[in-house]
């Protein structure tokens, strides 16, 4: 199929490159000349495993091309997939970009072509889509076209795999009287061995949101459970493992830690709360999900204070990990940035390291006063406390005993529950996690677990 993909961000570029690998003829459209220039040379403007290889292959086979000619690409396509951004940058939705794209695309499309919306949009906007598209077609005297929704469920860091081996493909019918749109999408996905679920457009939009809202709820649930575990001296990882054997519950997305970040989960929780309020629906559960998630970031700062005798002022904090999760260079709503700002506000000197060079470059501008260094050892050297915020393998595999020798104090907050507290404590660390208690060096011998308050009152023998 000849496919135009409009918007070459995370969603659009993954879509285009994967479709090119499935041998469709893809034209990627974007207005950003610099982005197009790098893509034509095979350079992907963000980190996503396997994507550069797919883009390079697509360019060399001629299956993937890039242009800024939106009307031209739309006119020659069997299908136009819209994947433009819909965030307003302030925790809300904006539909101007998608409206603008539709205004250009729809009049140019050929009569047999299908319009597919992949951007995540508010349900209310989806309701307006049929009339919007029909009026644009009528204005140029063109026949009506099928309009479909095809929400994405790919995760950053595994987007190519998620795209090519999806759990399910959701097709939402916006307007498809003779079934041509659905048939075209089935043809597009003929290489994917996944159930195809067809439903109304609003159902599809809310399926997309519902999936993310549920994942966010699971994470905040795990974080609240972690607090309960801390209070009673239980280990949240063991508890979740024990729960996960129940097939009604499962174990995914129940990892306690510093909470969820990124461009999707936090935004979609806050957008849904706002959108629901506009139609008179109260969402106390989602409000709590949001609160638990944001509280966690300030709890990290409070925990650091408690571990450092009540203040971080004048203390050197090694912050390990800046991206919102491993295998991405995305800093959008990354917990590390909020935690760094909180610590700096309280007078700490924060020295951060992330394995992603591009994330290091951008983060210094995003957090005034943040020092960013090129290696974990530079961050750790002389630190009074280390805080692991993103579970990059490099931090999990670090020689923590050696790292401890380089620190001013051996204090560690494991914000992702990925290290073995007993090993750290044996190496002389005070090891603090969320939902797995705090282990202090002296207490390890009796297997005791101390509360953060007890740790705060620890007497340090000269650092
Ligand atoms: C999320 C969804 O997982 C995708 O299915 C969806 O397509 C995408 O949003 C989207 O709407 O575009 P993504 O934002 O890439 O994908 O990231 P996730 O893997 O969902 O992780 C989100 C955050 O939750 C990360 O900060 C991660 O560290 C955190 N997390 C995840 C936890 O704190 N605990 C967990 O158990 C799992």
Kindly name the structural category: alpha/beta
The biggest sheet amounts to: 8 strands, mixed
Radius of gyration: 25 Å
The distinct ligands, each listed once, are: uridine-5'-diphosphate-glucuronic acid
Taken from the alpha-carbon principal axes, the silhouette is elongated
| Unreliable parts | 444-463
Return the average pLDDT rounded to an integer.
94
- Largest sheet, order of strands side by side? 3-2-1-4-5-6-7-8
For the termini, the CA-CA separation is 66 Å
Task: Give the number of DSSP strands.
Answer: 15
Number of helices: 19
Describe this protein with a few key phrases.
eight-stranded mixed sheet; binds uridine-5'-diphosphate-glucuronic acid; alpha/beta; seven-stranded mixed sheet; 463 residues; disordered C terminus; 45% helix; single chain
Summarize the structure.
This protein is an alpha/beta fold. It has 19 helices and 15 strands.
């Amino acid at each position: 199929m000849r496919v135009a993909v409009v918007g070459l961000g995370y969603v659009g570029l993954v879509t285009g490159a994967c479709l090119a690998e499935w041998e469709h003829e893809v034209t990627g459209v974007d207005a950003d000349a610099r982005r197009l220039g790098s893509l034509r040379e095979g350079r992907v403007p963000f980190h996503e495993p396997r994507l550069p290889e797919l883009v390079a292959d697509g360019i060399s086979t001629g299956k993937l091309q890039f242009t800024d000619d939106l009307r031209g690409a739309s006119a020659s396509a069997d299908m136009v997939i819209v994947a433009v951004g819909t965030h307003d940058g302030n925790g809300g939705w904006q539909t101007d970009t998608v409206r603008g794209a539709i205004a250009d695309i729809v009049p140019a499309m050929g009569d047999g072509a299908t319009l597919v919306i992949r951007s995540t949009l508010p349900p209310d906007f989806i309701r307006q889509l049929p009339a919007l598209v029909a009026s644009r077609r009528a204005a140029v005297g063109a026949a009506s076209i099928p309009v479909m929704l095809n929400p994405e469920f790919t995760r950053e860091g595994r987007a190519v795999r998620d795209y090519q081996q999806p759990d399910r493909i959701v097709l939402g019918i916006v307007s498809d009287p003779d079934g041509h749109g659905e048939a075209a999408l089935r043809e597009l996905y003929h290489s994917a061995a996944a159930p195809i679920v067809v439903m109304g457009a609003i159902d599809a939009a809310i399926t997309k949101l519902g999936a993310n809202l549920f994942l966010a709820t699971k994470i905040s649930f795990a974080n609240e459970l972690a607090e309960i575990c801390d209070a009673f001296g239980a280990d949240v990882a063991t508890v979740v493992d024990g729960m996960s054997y129940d097939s009604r519950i499962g174990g995914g997305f129940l990892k306690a830690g510093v909470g969820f970040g990124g461009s999707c989960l936090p935004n979609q929780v806050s957008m849904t709360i706002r959108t629901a309020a506009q139609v008179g629906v109260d969402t106390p559960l989602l409000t709590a999900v949001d609160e638990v998630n944001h509280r966690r970031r300030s709890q990290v700062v409070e925990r650091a204070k408690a571990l450092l005798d009540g203040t971080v002022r004048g203390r050197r904090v090694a912050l390990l990990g800046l991206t919102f999760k491993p295998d991405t260079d995305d800093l959008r709503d990354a917990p590390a940035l909020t935690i760094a700002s909180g610590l700096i506000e309280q007078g700490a000197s924060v020295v951060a390291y992330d394995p992603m060079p591009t994330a290091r470059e951008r983060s210094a501008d995003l957090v005034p006063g943040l020092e960013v260094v090129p290696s974990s050892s530079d961050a750790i050297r002389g630190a009074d406390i280390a805080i692991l915020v993103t579970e990059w393998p490099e931090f999990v595999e670090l020689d923590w005993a050696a790292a401890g020798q380089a620190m001013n104090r051996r204090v560690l907050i494991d914000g992702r529950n990925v290290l073995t507290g007993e090993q750290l404590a044996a190496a002389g660390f005070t090891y603090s996690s969320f939902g797995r208690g705090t282990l202090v060096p002296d207490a390890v011998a009796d297997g005791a677990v101390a509360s953060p308050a007890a740790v705060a009152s620890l007497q340090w023998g000269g650092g």
